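In line with agreed milestones, the collection of sequences with tokenised folds has grown. A representative record is reproduced below.
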Amino acid sequence: MSTKGEAWYRDSAFWQTVQPFVFPEARFDAAAAELDALQTLLDATGAPGLHGGTRVLDVPCGRGRHSVALQGYDLMPQHVQAAADRARKAGVEARFDVGDMFALELPAGAYDLALNLFTSIGYSDDEQDDAIFVESVYEALRPGG
């Protein structure tokens, strides 16, 4: 992991400041339509779907906009708590854990599908961090996942 000072994405105060802009309620309202579009794409490619027992990993999951009923990891504890609260209010079973996407120890072959939505690859100044992240997620997919 890059050791070039404290990275911006590790700063909890940063995420609190940008929360109204990055995670506005309207974006949560749009999540269902975005997941429907993602399901259409997955259906077209023959990839595992989002429902019916598929084990889906969403990392980083942020505040759980897309990962309700999935499993999500995020570096910020307040995001993980918000995601867990959102799932509980929706009455769905989901698992959220605090974890650094550049240092996750994911079980091999545990997931059918992995999601990394929007712009989180590239957070680190060190491209090796991204390579480690992608490799760890790849290894966490079942064969053919």
